[in-house]
Amino acid sequence: MFRLRRVLLLVFCGVLTGAGLIYGRLAGADLSRRPAAAVADGQTVPTDRIRLAVLGDSDSQSYHDSRTAREPNARGGPWRATTWQWTEVLGRLRGDQIDQGQWGAWGTNKYRAYFDEAFGSLARAPAKEDYRYNFAISGAWTNQLMGHPMRQATRLVALMDTEPQAWKGGVVLIRIGINDLGQHDILDEMSRDPNGPLPTARINAAIGEIGKAVALIRQHHPETYILLIGVLSNADWSGEFDSWQSAKAISNIDAGLKRFDDGLRKLAASDRHIAFLGDRAWFAGLWGTRDEQGRPAYKTVRLSPGWAITNTSGDDPHNAATSDGHAGVVWNTLWAQHLVASLNAAFGLHLKPITDADVIDFLKPSFKASERSASELSTPVTAN
Fold first, then answer.
1. What's the pLDDT at 68?
2. Where does the pLDDT of residue 77 fall: very low under 50, low under 70, confident under 90, or very high at 90 and above?
3. What is the per-residue pLDDT for 48?
4. What is the pLDDT of residues 26-54, one digit of tens each?
5. For a designed S-S bond to 175, which of 30, 215, 229, 273 qualifies (C-beta 3.0 to 4.6 A apart)?
6. End-to-end CA, the chain
7. What pLDDT was estimated at residue 200?
8. Contact assessment for residue 58 and residue 138, using Cβ atoms and an 8 Å cutoff
9. What CATH number has the domain spanning 49-283?
10. Residues 142 and 135: beta-carbon distance below 8 Å
11. What is the mean pLDDT of the chain?
12. How many other C-beta atoms can be found within 10 angstroms of the C-beta atom of residue 10?
């Protein structure tokens, strides 16, 4: 009996020791991990392409991810096949110059990711279908850049560590914050007082989390560029047009969001390898803003084939946003054009600009699909 108790005690102590080792390795995984061996993906990557990684939320996760976006009405609904997210546009228009990694199924559930990380293997969660260097996940807050379960920045850096030379002169784009600051209740408080306690706490926390991610990337890859993208205003989304219809309310929201952008500008000013790119000014330059009374007064974007794109929500490409509230194919294509020009200006890259003709050619299938559907709907059905 005594011997049995000793055996059970030894087993119990062994379990505790093993759990302690796993916990310790999880806690210190981001800075203490030795670079893992490069993971072969079966694809030879040309050395003259610039690597681009993405950290963010649904504004950057690819729309044609069949694993996490299975809803039939998501990201373009009936026109999903020709509704592209901006990274997908880049892949098709400038894939010969920009390397986003191989398209495929990447990641696991969070528990498997914890296990892989604990034992020094590359990890990412959740599972999704996307470009290999795109770690953006729908619904992500800024605290998921470094925190569990996503740990986007930490896990991207671990992947970059396997091929450090390849990331010299590469770019990490960070576009996140709309889920921290764009919710109705936050904007509502901001509309009354942009310096109120809740908006201030959210803004400061978001900037702090992005700052940690930037510091981690700079520590491991000092010759990699970082592009910080400013936050959009959900007051410009058609689902909120009935809210905040006063000049004061909109001005306050703009002031609050500007505080966030100013925090990113400060991070960018600290290092020549970091740049800031505002998003609201770009949007306003195309679709405009609300009027002096805070009422919707948006412009129509007109492209040369006679296409008119309004700041409305719907899956047809004539809408700026999809019916589920994300950027539509025209928005994403024009933003990809803007991004290439901005990367060249910020970091002295020599990417071939995306021309207006490129934009039109790329969008033709989307509008043809829309016109074909409209024609089918308008064709009368005759009885036999």
1. 67
2. confident
3. 84
4. 333 333 233 333 333 334 444 589 999 99
5. 229
6. 89
7. 98
8. yes
9. 3.40.50
10. no
11. 88
12. 10
For residue 78, whether the previous peptide bond is cis, meaning omega lies within 30 degrees of 0, is no
Name the band, by pLDDT with cuts 50, 70 and 90, for residue 23.
Answer: very low
Angle at 229 between CA 226 and CA 230, to 5 degrees: 145
Pairing status of strand 98-99 against strand 307-313: unpaired
Answer yes or no: are the C-beta atoms of 181 and 231 closer than 8 Å: yes
Instruction: Round to whole Å and give the CA distance between 178 and 39.
Output: 33
Radius of gyration of the chain (CA): 23
- How many CB atoms are located within 10 Å of the residue 246 CB? 14
Judged on CB neighbours under 10 Å (0-12, 13-18, 19+), 14 is exposed
User: Is the pLDDT assigned to residue 186 strictly greater than 50?
Assistant: yes
Provide the phi-psi class of 55: left if phi over 0, else alpha when psi is between -120 and 50, else beta. Answer: beta
pLDDT of residue 43: 40
Is the separation of the CB atoms in 146 and 217 below 8 Å?
no
Task: Sheet containing 225-229: give its strands across.
Answer: 98-99, 50-56, 171-175, 225-229, 274-277
Task: Write down the pTM of the prediction.
Answer: 0.86
Q: How many CA atoms lie within 13 A of 65 on its CB side?
A: 25
157-171 pLDDT, tens per residue?
A: 999 999 999 999 999
Unique residue bearing structure tokens 């994300």: 326
CB 84 within 8 A of CB 326: no
Q: Which amino acid, 234?
A: N
CB 136 within 8 A of CB 53: no
Residues 108-154 have pLDDT tens digits of: 999 999 999 999 999 999 999 999 999 999 999 999 999 999 999 99
- CA angle (167, 165, 149) in 5-degree steps: 50
Structure tokens at 51: 């690597």
Q: How many helices (H) and strands (E) in the chain?
A: 12, 10
Give the amino acid at 376.
Answer: E
Q: Domain coordinates of the chain in residue numbers?
A: 49-283
| Nearest C-alpha neighbor of 287 from the set 228, 336, 316, 327 | 327
> Residues 21, 115: contact at Cβ < 8 Å?
no
Return the structure tokens found at 219. 């520590």
Residues 268-307: pLDDT tens digits? 999 999 999 999 999 999 999 999 999 999 999 999 999 9
Nearest Cα to Cα of residue 311 among 249, 75, 303, 325: 325
- Contact predicate 348/321, CB 8 Å: no
